[in-house]
Amino acid sequence: MRIFRKPTPADREWVEPLLRREGIPLCAYNFTNLFCWQDTYGTEIARDLDRVLVRFRHSALGLAYLWPTGKGNPLPALNFLEEDARSQGQPLRFIGLSLYHRNWLEDCWPHRFDFTEMRDSFDYQYAIDRLADLPGKKLQAKRNHINRLNDNCPDWDFAPFTDADAQACLDMARLWQQEALARSSEEELKKEEEALTLAIRHREALGLEGVVLRCGDEILGFTLGSPLTDTIFDVHFEKARADIQGAFPAVNRSFARYLRDKFPDLRYLDREEDMGIEGLRKAKLSYGPDHLQVNISAVETTVLPTSIL
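Above: the chain sequence. Below: its structure as tokens.
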């Protein structure tokens, strides 16, 4: 059971309930992200009774783990993660900790870890009604952009993402990537294309929802996401034509309206992190996030014998 391996779409059946068991409101604990970005982050999973273990091997992160989410006593799972790190000559390192789990570690093992708030990895979360309705003066600019889209493409509309949209959306995303080369490296864009291709290819198995914006037969944008908790929906991918004014806010608003109608219990959309990219941070802040979910890393500084755990 405690053998790490790459995730497959079939793993969603057992992994997703355990990831959502503790309701950690960070996109790192979403199965789609673990699966689609596995090659980028060297993601592997294992099972420890009623907990899921997630391990990463990444050039920037080194060897790192998520909190072992699930139910029951977490100590056996933490014990195993420590042994796994020791076997590779590495300190125990966690990423994606909530404030609660950071305090849990510090209370149990005072001064054992160095904790760092990872601002570039904070999750931006917005009340779904605000994104669906864009009320008030602060969001007037977003409404103005959509009005320009109404003027220039009066017959634009959106519909749920279907298999028939897959190739056309991939083609549109590649055009977007060519425009984005001035802002991002070719390697980063290639990794995102790989993740998006996996998401679209396994859309139904991953339980993804999405919408596609069109003006006539032309695709203006699309988005894909999946539930993070019972009340938070994670937006994984959002693409729109940069040369069409209003396309980005329109796809954002359209997805919020679609989700609100389909899932009445949803309260927030998680638009994930900004990765420290100035333009992306500015764009996410412009919508006035209701919550910036703190993302904390922990690196062991005092190496204790395994028997102490």
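The chain is about 40% helix and 25% strand.
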